[in-house]
Specification:
Blueprint: H1 2-34, H2 44-91, H3 99-132, H4 134-163, H5 171-259, H6 281-293, E1 306-308, E2 314-316, H7 319-324, E3 343-349, E4 368-372, E5 384-389, E6 395-399, E7 403-405
Antiparallel strand pairs: 1-2, 3-4, 3-7, 4-5, 5-6
Length: 406
């Protein structure tokens, strides 16, 4: 038992001594090669393989780092997007049109971010980590090959030194040294041959790996952005519907207010020196009172009634007037003869009017407008007429009390 322990201790000591001696011999050989005292076995082809390997390893490591950062950013963007759309959901009131659909679309956005993070992690980053794991092992093998090359050069130089000695030639030492050289050369040759096969194969594999890896990445990105664009299009449609509904509500409210005598577009009755544009609240109030306290200048014309044309002679109402006498009031002084088909009468703008909706006409003082029927009589609103502006041919609504019949 004691003897076995002693032998084990001596064996460990021997191994340690040989290891120290080997390291010292390698260090000495490297120093001699650097200072040019001895030559070094060169292999330019292998050096090119190592250079390609180093570049390949560096780029793979960089890509791995960037993809890893990208996945972290996707997760951060998912959290930021979720917080933003939750806030939008709070801002978008429950009674607004499309509220439930907007909520569903915002949930879809979160699912798209989550799916992108999973795809990039599982199908891009993890394969990249596996690919990257080949390089440390290959690096260790290259370093081992370099150590074996130093051992071979060291044994070769020792053998050459013994061969060149003129005195005290020891044939036994020379033979032993030759055996060590052959052993070192054989060991180095095996690992060197393996690396000369493995390094080019690893370098060539980069193309197939990157094709597969990047195709997967770009496919995931394409699906994500395509689906996200569809969701954003749906959200934009929801907002457009809300906008149109709001415009209709505002327009209806304004016209009802105008019919009840509270129209903000009723002008001040001008004198010879004043402008119809009112700039103060007090003036606007007076304008409203004067307008609705002043008797209107026109009255309904019954079927068969006589109207006065521009020459002052009486004539029967035209067929157009007969068809519309129940829906439209033809003002006194309005000429109904010699008008294009569909035109009830003509008016001239007495005041400037700026439209507040897309379906309204803009009027300048003196503009001539041909009054026509509403396409849908039920849409007719008190105080508003439908007409065609003669100067531009534009069709739209305009307030009757901004014009005078001609």
């Amino acid at each position: 038992m004691v003897g076995d322990l002693k032998m084990a201790t001596e064996s460990k000591g021997t191994i340690f001594a040989k290891t120290v001696q080997k390291h010292a011999g390698r260090a000495k050989e490297k120093i001699l090669q650097k200072v040019g005292k001895v030559d070094r076995t060169a292999d330019e082809i292998f050096d090119d393989h190592v250079q390609n390997f180093t570049k390949q390893h560096m780029l793979a490591k960089k890509l791995q780092t960037e993809v890893n950062n990208y996945v972290k950013c996707i997760r951060e963007m998912r959290a930021a997007s979720k917080s933003l759309y939750e806030c939008i959901g709070e801002v978008y009131e429950p009674d607004w049109t499309g509220h439930d659909l907007l909520y569903l679309q915002t949930q879809t956005v979160d699912m798209l971010w989550q799916d992108l993070a999973h795809k990039v992690t599982d199908q891009v980053l993890i394969p990249l980590n596996t690919y990257q794991a080949h390089f440390p092992e290959m690096r260790k093998k290259i370093e081992k090959r370099n150590r074996k090359l130093v051992d071979y050069d060291s044994q070769r130089h020792s053998y050459q030194s013994l061969e060149t000695m003129q005195k005290k030639r020891d044939q036994g030492k020379i033979s032993k040294s030759k055996e060590l050289v052959d052993e070192a050369k054989r060991t180095f040759g095996i690992i060197n041959s393996e690396l000369n096969d493995e390094l080019p194969a690893l370098h060539d594999s980069r193309i197939l790996f990157y094709v597969t890896n990047l195709q997967t990445f770009f496919s995931a990105e394409q699906v994500f952005h395509s689906e996200l664009a569809k969701v954003h299009s749906e959200l934009e449609t929801i907002i457009e519907k809300l906008s149109k509904e709001n415009q209709r509500t505002v327009s209806t409210t304004r016209r009802i207010s105008a019919a009840n005598g509270a129209s903000p577009v009723t002008p001040v009755t001008p004198n010879s020196t004043s402008s119809p544009i009112v700039s103060t609240p007090e003036a606007k109030g007076r304008s409203l009172r004067e307008e609705f306290e002043t008797p209107k200048e026109y009255e309904p014309v019954e079927v068969g009634a006589q109207v006065t044309n521009g020459g002052g002679s009486p004539s029967l109402a035209t067929p157009a007037a007969k068809r519309n006498d129940e829906l439209y009031d033809i003002p006194v002084g309005a000429t109904t003869e010699d008008l294009p088909p569909g035109v009830l009468y003509r008016v001239r703008a007495a005041y400037k009017y700026d439209p507040e909706d897309e379906d309204e006409l803009q009027l300048e003082i003196g503009d001539i407008v041909r009054v026509i029927e509403y396409e849908d009589p039920e849409e007719q609103e008190e105080g508003w007429l439908m007409g065609i502006k003669e100067s531009t041919g534009q069709k739209g609504l305009f307030p009757a009390n901004f014009t005078r019949p001609i």
